[in-house]
Amino acid sequence: MEIPDISAYDRILIGSPIWCGTIPNAVFSFLDKVNLNGKKAAIFTTSVATEPQKIAVKIKKKYSAKWCRPFNANHATDENITDWLK
Ligand SMILES: Cc1cc2nc3c(=O)[nH]c(=O)nc-3n(C[C@H](O)[C@H](O)[C@H](O)COP(=O)(O)O)c2cc1C
Q1: pLDDT single digits (tens) 6-22
Q2: How far, in Å, from the CA of 74 to the mean position of ligand 1?
Q3: Percent above pLDDT 90 for the chain
Q4: What is the number of the ligand 1 atom nearest to the C-alpha of 16?
C-alpha cells in the first residue's frame, strides 16, 4: 500500500467501515505506516450498528496522535457532519 505524504497536513480524518466489530486490516495497515504524531486526527465510520467509540479507544491506545471525537457518518445529516467537524 502506497502511503501518501501527509507531512503538510495538520488534521487527518480517517474514514472506515466496521467489519465484524472492528475496522478492516487495510485501515490498521495504513495506521501502522502513517506517522500521526503531533497531528490532530479523528476517525469516522460508516457502520450500521457498532459505535465508533469502541474502535477509537483501541486506536488511541495503539497510535499516537491528538485524537478527536470519533463519529458515525451513517445516516448523518450535513448539519451533524458540520457540527462534528467543528
Ligand atoms: C462483512 C461485513 C461485516 C460487517 N460488520 C459490521 C459490524 O460488526 N458492525 C456494524 O455496525 N456494521 C457492520 N457492517 C456494515 C458496514 O460497516 C457497512 O456496510 C459499511 O460501513 C458501509 O460501507 P460500504 O458501503 O463501504 O460497505 C459489516 C459489513 C460487512 C460487509
Answers
A1: 999 999 999 999 999 99
A2: 10
A3: 94
A4: 21
Chain segment 24-52, per-residue pLDDT in tens = 999 999 999 999 999 999 999 999 999 99
Strands 66-67 and 71-72: unpaired
C-alpha cell at 57: 479507544
d(CA 83, CA 55): 21
Residue where the block lists cell 495497515: 29
